[in-house]
Amino acid sequence: MKTKLICLILAMFQLTALAQRVKVGNLYYNLSKDSKTAEVAPYDEKKYEGNITIPASVEYEGTSYQVTTIADNAFWDCGELTAISIPNTVWKIGESAFLATQLKQLALPASVTEIGTYAFTFCPALMSITVDSNNKVYDSRNQCNAIIHTATDNLLFGCNATVIPSGVKKLSDSCFEGCVLMTQMNIPYGVKSIGRSAFSTCKELTSVTIPGSVTSIGGHAFEYCQKLTSLIIPEGVSVIEEYLCIYCESMTKVVIPSTANVIEDTPFHTALQDVYCYATTPPRSKFGYSVTIMPFAEVGGEYVFPATLHVPEASVDAYKNSTAGWEHFYQIVALTPEEMAINKPLASESHGSSWYTIDGRPLYQAPASRGIYIRKSSDGTTQKILIP
Question: What CA–CA distance (Å, rounded) separates 144 from 171?
Fold first, then answer.
């Protein structure tokens, strides 16, 4: 035991000797005397601010250290940091390294091969993201203003000006969180999952299009999207996760697909007027919690969800007699035959779709206004689509 303790003490002394925290210029560094490398470290007292250029190397007491990493939380919560220049010697950017900064643009060098979670999350002023074309791990294909993990087609970080390119398969957790200037988002067909808090606090987001390829949407995905008025969850999604649209004060309409079978606690906290649920069997609540839509309203001495629930006609009684929370809706009515006849997007959906009005007149782009339209897919199939 004594031998192990001595070894531990010696290892700590050795670590102290190899890693030294110093300030050079306007930045703090952790220096490794063994490898002659430097890590940009978090601020000590005063937060980093303004325009900062990270040097490729620093000199300290006559020794040169190459700057290779940016530590976890290095620039976290530096609300006055507006610009950063990262040298082509840095290979790693740590977790939350630039979380909650005011960066306006980001250029990722070819040398970066590892980025920690939340590294560029909640950067509300960020309008431009580029990745060096020689980077072997990440890309910003088609000038999309995002960082994509090339091997997995996973979009890790976006900004207010991101246009999600075709080929992306996943939107990572918190990838657009805090993009407060984003107003619209069209998620292309091929994206299969939307991560937790993906669009959280996108306060100016008024519309989002989710394709039929999406089969999972993480909890909190659209929380605090205060101007989002409706959400259509596509067929294929089976679990409506918790706090999906919490604090979306302008949202009046939600469409739940027929594939939904589980709905978690308090998925919606909105000004909902109508919920369209196509599931013939009322989705059960997870862990036995009651499905909750906030806020409640008092009607006739009882607290109810002040919205109308539209369900398949044969399922009205099942929803009224549910013990999972559906029974608390103020009104539960049958979907009209026209609403039931509207098909959901097919798995064959593609960018080659052609759109027409209900009377057959061609449209030159996907419709944005309310109404019923005809869509012809590239495989020749046609569908009647409701834009609510």
Answer: 14
Cα atoms found within 13 Å of the Cα of residue 66, Cβ hemisphere only: 10
Residue 89 CA to residue 56 CA, distance in Å, equals 6
331, β-bridge pairs: 308
Distance CA 85, CA 76 (A): 16
For the chain, the domains span: 343-388
Question: What dihedral do alpha carbons 6, 11, 12, 13 form, nearest 10°?
Answer: 90
Check if the beta carbon of residue 270 is closer than 8 Å to that of residue 230: no
Tens-place pLDDT, residues 301-352: 666 788 899 999 999 999 999 888 888 888 999 999 878 866 444 433 444 5
| pLDDT tens for each residue of 252-265 | 999 999 999 998 87
Q: CA-CA distance, 12 to 93, in Å (whole number)?
A: 25
| The two structure tokens encoding residue 51 | 């325009």
- What residues does 333 pair with on adjacent strands? 310
Q: Is the pLDDT of residue 152 over 70?
A: yes
- Of residues 277, 279, 196, the one with CA closest to residue 244: 196
HEC sequence for 283-336: CEEHHHCCCCEECCEEECCEEEEEEEEEECHHHHHHHHCCCCCHHHEEEEEECC
Q: How far apart are CA 62 and CA 58, in angstroms?
A: 10
Q: How open is the CA angle 144-150-152, to the nearest 5 degrees?
A: 115
Bond into 295 cis (ω within 30): yes
Could you read off the pLDDT of 159-183 as tens digits, one per residue?
Answer: 999 999 999 999 999 999 999 999 9
Please tell me which residue, 238 or 10, carries the higher pLDDT value: 238
Partners of 171 in beta bridges: 155, 194
